[in-house]
């Protein structure tokens, strides 16, 4: 084990005291808060990610972003050497370190992480300092430079080197860290970024080679949320234009990050983002979030006297399209390659019931439901040969097992479906959900099927749904089970919810969960009509308010 200079850690820590009223905890996807509070958290995450790198003997990554949150917030996501997210058994240690009150507590907490290891499996892995470093990436928030300095100080306190990857999307960062630890490690992080674009775009070009441009000329209007995605999309616009995809970029940085734009806004509010022109019916549009790991498509369907109807093609629709396409390809494989391939679609309780029925009843694929958060879906997807996972909010990807990829590689020369599946596995960023990769995937599948947006939308019709959020004094009092579909505490709340649901037609449902990213409780409902869904959500919200100590206006 490396000799750690704990005196240096103590001294470095003293430059980054935790604000006394700030009690950070590792949320759904890392730490997130108002940026002015986060210097100590970033310093300590620097310590943690350096410790993790030393224990694993490999390079880990740290991404500074608060995704779709307002511009004054920031946050941090920690990345494993294989490009996945920090393992869940490290989350309590991350929280404990971030919450230490004194520099001595920071030293003690770090010492405990390094000497006992958080789990036995990480304890005995040899360190190999010198060849490992921590990789840093960040989005375009103005607070990033100061937070970066704090994180660099944390890594340096453990004597570990760092590489500044620069402005990147979160999924690019996951890909770069994965590349950095691969046997064919790139010469620089810049080269790793080029490999990212070459891998995804190269595979897209092959998938659509020789196919006619879509009837609308291949135009795709993209809302970049004034986030870091725009910075990279402009660089590949020309190349993709040659492959028949004309990306027209909006909200590229002239407005405020995520303000009335971005995937979260479009998905939750069901409106077109600010800055968009008046849309022609069924023109292809999509929206990514601030760090470009979420994607939703949208369009308008004709106009009525009340205005145009917005159509949202969310993560569930992307998952359904992808699963249908993959299933078709798998059917074309010879038995020797494709007879026993296990395919699963992983969703959360937020998945629209119509999408679940479509996957189960039309595609005849198995569906698994996990709690909210990419880390749960990603983990579940690993237990299939092809694990297709998406959250309704647009986070998702597909994982292909190493064994399946080996079989496909053997068959690709003689079987075009095997070749196509291999190309799909390259278009898709398998380290994490990726908006840019998602765009190439959707565009390739639509082109291969010669489908319009309206045909894609017609796969199934969404059940009317409603989401509301409310504030309670302590959202931790609300605990849930069964992949968040049942409320355990406060005692009696689930009984009330069940009684309310029973007043609505069969197929109606509702659930409640505490948010992992904001101080709020979320209520979701589905029912045969929009009025019923609204009404049910509102009544369940009232029950939560009364039983869990609501604060502010009652729903
Ligand atoms: C984060 C999660 C996302 C989840 C969302 C839920 C990642 C990379 N992102 O954005 O998966 O759907 O939080 O937010 O894990 P909530 O807990 O506030 O509803
Ligand atoms: Mg995001």
From TrEMBL:
The active site is at residue 67. Residues 56-93, 130-181 form the Alpha-D-phosphohexomutase alpha/beta/alpha domain. It catalyses: N-acetyl-alpha-D-glucosamine 1-phosphate = N-acetyl-D-glucosamine 6-phosphate. Its cofactor is Mg(2+). Residues 193-296, 314-451 form the Phosphoacetylglucosamine mutase AMG1 domain. CDD domains: PGM3 (cd03086). Mg(2+) binds at residues 67, 289, 291, 293. This is Phosphoacetylglucosamine mutase.
């Amino acid at each position: 084990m490396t000799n750690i200079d704990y005196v240096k850690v103590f001294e470095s820590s003293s430059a980054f005291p935790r604000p006394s009223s700030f009690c950070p905890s590792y949320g759904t996807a890392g730490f997130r808060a108002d940026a002015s509070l986060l210097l100590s958290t970033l310093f300590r995450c620097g310590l943690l990610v350096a410790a993790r790198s030393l224990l694993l003997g490999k390079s880990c990554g740290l991404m500074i972003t608060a995704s779709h949150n307002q511009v004054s917030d920031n946050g941090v996501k920690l990345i494993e050497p294989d490009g996945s997210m920090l393992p869940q058994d490290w989350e309590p240690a991350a929280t404990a370190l971030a919450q230490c009150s004194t520099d001595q507590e920071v030293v003690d907490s770090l010492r405990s992480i390094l000497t006992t290891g958080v789990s036995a499996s990480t304890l005995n892995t040899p360190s190999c300092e010198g060849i490992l470093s921590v990789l840093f990436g960040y989005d375009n928030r103005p607070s990033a430079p100061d937070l970066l300095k704090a994180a660099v100080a944390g890594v340096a306190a453990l004597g570990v080197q760092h590489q500044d990857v620069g402005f990147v999307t979160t999924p690019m960062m996951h890909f770069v860290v994965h590349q950095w630890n691969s046997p064919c490690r790139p010469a620089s992080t810049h080269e790793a970024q080029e490999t990212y674009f070459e891998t995804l775009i190269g595979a897209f070009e092959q998938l659509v080679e020789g196919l006619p441009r879509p009837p609308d000329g291949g135009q795709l209007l993209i809302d970049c949320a004034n986030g870091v995605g725009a910075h990279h999309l402009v660089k590949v616009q020309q190349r993709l234009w040659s492959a028949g995809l004309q990306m027209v970029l909006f909200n590229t940085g002239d407005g405020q990050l995520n303000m009335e734009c971005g995937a979260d806004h479009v998905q939750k509010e069901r409106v077109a983002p600010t800055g968009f022109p008046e849309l022609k019916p069924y023109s292809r549009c999509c929206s990514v979030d601030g760090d470009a790991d979420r994607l939703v498509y949208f369009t308008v369907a004709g106009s009525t006297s009340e205005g145009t109807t917005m159509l949202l093609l969310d993560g569930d629709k992307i998952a359904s399209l992808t699963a249908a396409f993959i299933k078709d390809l798998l059917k074309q494989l010879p038995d020797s390659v494709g007879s026993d391939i296990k395919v699963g679609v992983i969703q959360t309780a937020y998945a629209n019931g119509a999408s679940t029925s479509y996957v189960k009843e039309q595609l005849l694929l198995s569906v698994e439901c996990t709690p909210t958060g990419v880390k749960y879906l990603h983990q579940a997807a690993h237990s299939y040969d092809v694990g297709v996972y998406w959250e309704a909010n647009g986070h998702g990807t597909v994982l292909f097992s190493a064994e399946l990829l080996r079989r496909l590689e053997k068959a690709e020369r003689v079987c075009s479906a095997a070749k196509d599946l291999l190309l799909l596995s390259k278009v898709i960023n398998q380290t994490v959900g990726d908006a840019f990769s998602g765009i190439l995937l959707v565009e390739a599948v639509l082109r291969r099927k010669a489908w319009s947006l309206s045909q894609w939308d017609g796969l199934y019709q969404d059940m009317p749904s409603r989401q509301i959020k409310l504030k309670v004094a302590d959202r931790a009092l609300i605990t849930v089970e069964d992949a968040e579909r049942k409320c355990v505490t406060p005692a009696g709340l689930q009984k009330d919810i069940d009684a309310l649901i029973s007043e609505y037609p069969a197929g109606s449902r509702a659930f409640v969960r505490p948010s992992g990213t904001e101080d709020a409780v979320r209520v979701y409902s589905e029912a045969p009509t929009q009025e019923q869904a609204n009404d049910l959500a509102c009544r369940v919200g009232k029950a939560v308010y009364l039983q869990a100590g609501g604060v502010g206006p009652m729903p």
